[in-house]
Amino acid sequence: MSTLTERSRQQKLYLWRRANGVEVYTDPAPVRAHIETLMGWGMTLEMIRQGADCSGQAVRFIVDGTFPRVKAELAQRLLQVDHRPGPSQWFALAVGARRRVEALNTMGWQSQYLAERLGIYDRVKLQSMIKQPRIRYTTWLAINELYEELSASIGPGNNTMVRARNRGLASPLAWYDIDIDHPAAIPSRTAQRSHCKDGHALSPDNILVSSTGHQQCRECHRIRNRASRRRAMPGDVAEGSRGSQGARTPDLVV
Fold this sequence. Notes:
The protein has helices at 6-19, 29-40, 45-52, 56-63, 72-79, 95-106, 111-117, 123-130, 137-150, 158-166, 188-192, 218-232, 235-246; strands at 25-26, 70-71, 91-93, 134-136, 207-209, 215-217. By secondary structure, it is mainly alpha-helical. Helix 3 packs across helix 5 (72-79), helix 6 (95-106) runs parallel beside helix 9 and helix 6 packs across helix 10 (158-166).
């Protein structure tokens, strides 16, 4: 059994690392920038501390510049913390939970049904929870599991589906292969469809929402309507009506 004190052990470890070229300390600037990015997304210092499994004081000292250098091992753990929720954290960013609930709404799953499945039993409370910047990790996990179960099927609420799509909410298909929890993520339908298939810009004033909740190009819809009206009016009838209106009545011979 070793009789080395903790101080002696740390000293010997430091000398071994230095002799073998193992980096012990590093510049805290990249770590500070990473922490500030996480905080800009809504993460707290406590969430970051829990994700890196370190002390809150160490994180605070890095942020306020008290540490002129930081241990390389601690820096690596902090740089590995990102927006994705982890079981070691009490809270998680709520943006992914909100997007999942909204995506299920576009599939016809009512918020009241989702609230009951989550054990909340109140759709107003569910909506209030997911609109907050942060949510409990256990709640985020439950919403994620429910999303995985229901996102590929159609729910019974047709009115819910229409209202959600009229609001322009993204469906589960729009989030396919995209990190739905990333605060800066954009659903594919928004990122890819800037113009319709005929080249008209899909600006807000050129988007028409149908009764089923689908978005259409307003200009294309106008062109189709004009073409449909022209087809419904035969040419000979139109010419005949114009001829009858333009013809003069012959003078009567007495």
